[in-house]
Structures are given as structure tokens and as C-alpha cells.
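Supplementary Methods, section 5.1.

A reviewer requested that the exact input to the structure prediction be made available. We therefore reproduce it here, unchanged from the version used in the analyses.
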Amino acid sequence: MLSDQLKVHLRRLSELLAPHADRLEKKFVARLKGLRYEKKQRIALAAITLGAAARILVQRRPPLKFIENVEYHGRRLAKLNLPPSAIVAALQEYDALLAPMVRDHFPNEITNFRWVRDQLHFCVILTLNNAYYQVREAETQAFYELFRAELESRNLDDLLKRFVATMVPVCSADAGHLYLLNAQTGEWEWKAGAQCRKPKTAVEATPALRRRLSSPKYLDSAQSPPGYFLDPAWKQRYRSCWSVPLASEGGTFGVLQLGFARTYEWLPREQELLSAAAERCMMAAEKARLMEDLAAREEQVRQLAEHMLHVEEMERRRISRELHDETGQSLLCVRLQMEMLEQSMPEREREWKDKLAETRDLTEKTILEMRRLIAALSPAVLEQLGLGAALRQLVNRFRRIHTARVRLHLSRLGSLPQNTEIIVYRLVQECFNNIAKHSGATNVNLSVSSTDGRVRLHVEDNGVGFRVDEALARRESFGLSGMRERVALLGGTFRIQSFPEAQKRERGTKIWIELPISKEGKRRGSDGCVRGSAGTETVVGRTAAVLG
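The structure derived from this sequence is encoded cell-by-cell as follows.
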């Protein structure tokens, strides 16, 4: 940045200017004070003038040292919120004081002074621009890291830990602690830290201490009361501390404290950055807390729904068992008594004998309907022979009441957990109920396979179709919603596609379901044998003949 020629002239003129530098600086500082520049701003501006450069060069230090000094004080000026235009105006005030002094004491060096001043002024402006860029870039990077932390954090503790880890290097701190107020214990609870250990003791959150920490504070270990340091060991370990509250409308719920091994009083820009970051952290923490609460409540609802399904299956089994053992046996006895009465009646009582035969036939039909209800409530074949046999039986029963052509394809069902088998069976059962009631289909394809730790179910028909969004939105209809909930309980995926005949050339409905297989004990395979895999089976039927 500095040419050799500039360095030579700068050193020579610095030796001439050095004896007058202090007097010029006093006048310059007085002029800045009159222009309402703050004290810290006046000190930083005085360190980037030609007089400051002269002091460094007469000590035989390299010119680069002055440029480094300008960069350091440029960052301070940026953090002091002084606009670049104000810096240029201040340097012009210095030049206005320098010009008469050069004219009075060094009339022969006016040209050289002007050239050196212009060249050095150019280098100072470039360095200041770079310093301002560094400060703004650091602030942008800090907010970017906070945004990343908010998006990527797994939970509230991880969010707070990443927040502290971001702010410690941004503020050039040696350590950082973040505390949240525990409403139950009434203490400041340590939540995250960086470059330091967790405090051994907790501090009581008295109303007076909460009031003191409700605003940003610079703490000096030699002057501040011990209670301000939420980690008592910090008062001996660090020279200074920054304390920033995490506040919301209800009050102060957290405090971020940064420790420094040196006396380091913050600047306005740093205080604003910390306050804005603390506000963002508080909002993100509230969001994370709400998300955790929502996830916990969703898990409770999921567990409750799963429990309700389990209770439903148990109740189905109890009802089917009682129907079989009590009502079914009673109906069989009634039918047997009627048959015996019918056989024992004389031929002359033909009219009564015919009525008794009709009643016996009605009882027989009731027994058959009772068996159908028992099988629908809790299919015994599912427990005894497995999912494959239960699905074949379900297809057979469907075809007895519906003339559609059904194609069943079972592929590598293997050994499945009982819960998975029940869910798949109920899903297929619901699909068949919907097809029988609404679709008017003539062809139905059903495929069930098990590969890569997942069960895949695909049902397709050529019925009239329907509008999926409307069907799912109906409050009085629970068929599709119930299927979707059953799939969600196992962490699976549910996809449905339907083509209303009035809208498209294609027609019918397609349903794809994937369910993960939980790691449970082995179950019976599709043919009733315990095994790890099964072959491929295809069953096609049109009439009401029994399958398999």
C-alpha cells in the first residue's frame, strides 16, 4: 500500500512534524469536542492522523505499524457507530489545523507535505473502509450463525449451546455462560457455556437481582458487587464481564454473561449486536420450547391412539369370543332342538312342521351371519395361520358378496410382528368395504409384499373414483381418515390417487401404503410356517369358489 518514495518522504517529514504533533493533537481534540464528538471517538480519530503517524515513524517503527493502528481504531470507530462521512470531516478539520503550521514553520516543504498528506489520506481511507467491512461482516456472520443454529438445532439445549458458542468469538470473549430462570426453584439455572466449566452452585433469582440484570450491564470485577456475577468464581477469574438479559413482555427469563481476562468495556455497536442477538435467541428459545411441547403432546396423542387401537382389537376379540362361546352355542342348541322337534312331530301336523322348518332355516342363517361377524371382528386364521391365509380368506368372503374379479398377489411376506399383521389386515378390510359400497368396480388388484424391512400394500380398482380432497375433508366419513391414522401410528406412508369418471379418461382408485417392520419376535409366515422369507403367490378368481 505504501510506496518506497512515500516511505522516504514520510519519514523525513515525520521528523519535522513530531515536535509539533502534541500541540496539534490538543487543538484537534478540542475542535472535535466543540463539534460534539464523543470522548472515545475523539481518541480513535486522533490515532489516525498524520501526527499519529509521525510519532510512530520517529520511533523507527515501520510505517505498516501505523496502518495496523488505523485498522484497529477504524474497527472501534465502526463499533462506536460513527459514520464514514464524520471521519472524513474530522480528518479535514485536522488538515485545516496542519496547513498554517506547515506554512509558518516549513514554507519550503509545503509541496512535499501536501503530497505526503494526500497519499497517506488515501491509504487511511482504504484501511478504514476495510475496517468497517470487517465489523459489518462479523455482525452478518454472527446473525447467519444464529439463524443456522435456529434451523439446525435438535432441541432447546442444543440451540442455547450453539448460541453461546457463536457469541463468545464474535465478542472476543474468553468465556460465556447462559442462564435461564427456573420458575419452580426460583434460581438462575445454567443452560449452556463456552470455554468454561459449569458453575458449582446456583444463584437465587431474588426480585432485586432480577431487576439489576434486566438491562445490559458492563461489570468490572474490582468495582461491581459480587451478586451481579451469576458464577461467583468469575469475579476472581476475569477482569470484566458483559451481562445481557434475555427478556420478553413478561420480564427477564434469561441472562447471557461473557467474561474477559482483560478490562474490556463494550462499545455501542457491540451492545446493540448483543441485545439484538439476545432478543433473537429468546424468540428462538420460545419457539423451540413450543415445538418440544408440541412434539411431546403429539407423542402422547400417538400413544393414546395406539393404545385405543389395541383396546379396540382386544374388545373385538372379547366380543367375538363371547359371541362364539355364548350366543353361538345357544343358537346351535336352539337349532338342534328345533331339528329334533321337527323330526318328532307327526305328519298330520304338517302346517306346524313347515313353520318349524322355516324357523330352523332362519336360525341357521343367523348362525352363519354370526360366524361372519365373529370372523370380521377377530379373524382366528390371522393368529393361527398368519397374514397370508387371513388375506386369502378375506378375499374369498369379499367375492361371495361382490362379483368383481379379484387378483391377490403375496410376495415375500416373511415373519411379521403381530401389530403389523393386524394393521395390514384392517387396512385391506377397509379397502374392500369402500370398494363394495362405493366404487362399482369390476376388477380389483391387491398386492402385499415385504422387503428391506418394510411392508408394501397396493390396492387398485377400476371403479367410478372420487375426489380425494373432498373425501378426506368430510367430517362424517372416517374410512380414509382411519386408514391414514393407522398408517401414521406405525410411521408409514399413505398415498391415494383417484380419477373421477367425469373428469378424466382414466378411472378408478389406487392406494399405496408402506409400513416399517418393527423389531419384534418372529411371527408365522403367510402359510403358517415360521420362516424368514416366502415365495410369490398369485390367486385369481371370478366366481365364489373358496381360495386356497
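The radius of gyration is 43 Å. These observations are discussed further in the main text.
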